[in-house]
Amino acid sequence: MRYLIEHETIYDTVSGEVFSTSSETATKRKLTNTANCILALLVASHGKVVERKYLLENVWEEHGQSSSNASLNQYISILRKVLASFLGDVEVIITYPKVGFSLSSGIHIESIDDKKKSFLTGRQEAYSNVMNLLNKTTLMVVFFSVALISGIVYSSGLPKEKSIKNYLGKCQLISNISITEKINNSVLSTIEKMHPDLLETCSNSKANLIVYFNESAIYGKKSSFFASLCQVDSQTKKVNYCNSAYINNWSLK
Amino acid sequence: MNKMIIITFMAMTIIISVVSLALSFRNNNNDCEANISHSFAFAKNGFNFNAHVLYHQEKSNNGGVYFSGVLENRNETYHFSQYINIHYSQIGTDKYNVSIKKIKKVGFDNVPSDLVTLLYEVIGLSGDIPVYVYNRNKNYITTGTVISPLMSCVIVN
Asked: Could you say which of A31, A63, A115, A245 would form a disulfide bridge with A35 (CB–CB 3.0 to 4.6 Å)?
């Protein structure tokens, strides 16, 4: 199975190779069998904590090798260095002291096989693919992180954009409200009506999706609803253009 | 020989400083571009418009907005194309008072004046309510009123 990490780095669980798609001259790194096993297990449980015991049993003991926490730590350290050489100083592997490790839910990972399918087929499959990604995300964390509320408020009470990496396909979602699984469909449906090209855009290119509505909407009240879709240039990382849409009498259905 | 190296070094430093200064001025460009689509339900009457917005920074605290698009009100469709001179003053952190100094029609524009007033009111240009900068990113900003963000505007270099 091959995975695309943060849209630019490919990890092949079969060969244990990690390489970048953005530059042909980029170094290809081949993991040792042990490191590859650990990373494969972490990727398979993306966003969830994988316990030390589980890793020790499945990587070492199952193959008749003796295991230790020290060697596990050493391999985690190696993996961090390898991933940092491709992804920069992003916290990819999170340590849960005395519990285990997880691949950060803030890191975007998708199966390349799934992605190819969505490119080749029409809107129906693109929708399905994005929805699958969406469901994966919502199962791992809540769709938009609760942290959005806590750390992004101005002294004036207004929300400030925070670069929390939650994704709808390739679109980075930025919202003032934590969008839970319960309200996810209604919010997505509203955004789709405002931006009919949403799913196509988020399947094919990077974009920032800024969503704003009042918290009272969660409790059945009417609210304004704002959604801005800003397409990002894959080379310069700058926003090319934004389409902003606003409705003033919206409610959750 | 050492004197030559020092002079060359100083000359290079001056050139780099001047170029950096010029580039920093260039990057302070505040002109921006937005596409907006707003839909308002006022009682039984729908009031919708799609617009292309170009903001041009003029002298300090003054700017011009080229605002063009299509407006629908009570099943009637109108076209608007206007250049608005605005004056703004900062009244708080990312909080501004904006007032319209002059509206000039540019090309074809058949929007009734009462709808023009309403149009600018709902996007926060009436001067009655402050305009906020909600999000400030590398090359775009999101502005709006206290009620909600209203548009993301991409900085034009």
From this structure: A31
- With H, G, I as helix, E, B as strand and everything else as coil, classify residue A91: coil
Cβ–Cβ gap B146/A212 under 8 Å: no
For residue A4, the cross-strand partners are A10, A110
Q: Do A244 and B37 touch (CB under 8 A)?
A: yes
Strands laid side by side in the A9-12 sheet: A29-30, A17-20, A9-12, A2-5, A109-111
Within B43-137, strands assigned E span: 45-57, 62-73, 76-92, 95-105, 131-136
8 Å CB contact of B39 and A246: yes
pLDDT of residue B2: 63
Q: Is the pLDDT reported for residue B1 higher than 80?
A: no
Span A50-75, pLDDT tens digits: 888 888 888 887 667 777 888 888 88
What is the average pLDDT across A116-141?
44
CA separation for the pair B154, B157 (Å, rounded): 9
Q: Report the pLDDT value the prediction gives residue A156, as an integer from 0 to 100.
A: 41
Name the residue of chain B whose CA is nearest to A163's CA. B137
**Selected residue with higher pLDDT from B7 and A78:** A78
Report the candidate in A65, A220, A174, A8 with the shortest Cα–Cα distance to residue B136.
A174
CB atoms within 10 A of CB B124: 21
Write the DSSP symbol of residue A63.
G
Q: Do B39 and A228 touch (CB under 8 A)?
A: no
The Cα A115–Cα A109 span in angstroms is: 11
Of the candidates A208, A139, A121, which has an alpha carbon nearest to the alpha carbon of residue A168?
A208
Q: What is the pLDDT of residue B5?
A: 65
The pLDDT value recorded for residue B143 is 92
Q: Is-above-0.80 flag for pTM?
A: no
SS3 of chain A: helix, strand, coil, percent, to 5: 40, 25, 35
| Cα–Cα nearest to B140, from A196, A243, A204, A191 | A243
Query: Could you report the predicted ipTM of this complex, rounded to two decimals?
Result: 0.79
Average pLDDT, chain B: 82
Instruction: Name residue, tokens 């909080």.
Output: B95
CA distance to partner chain A, nearest, from residue B6 (Å): 37
Nearest by CB to residue B132, choosing from A158, A242, A244, is A158
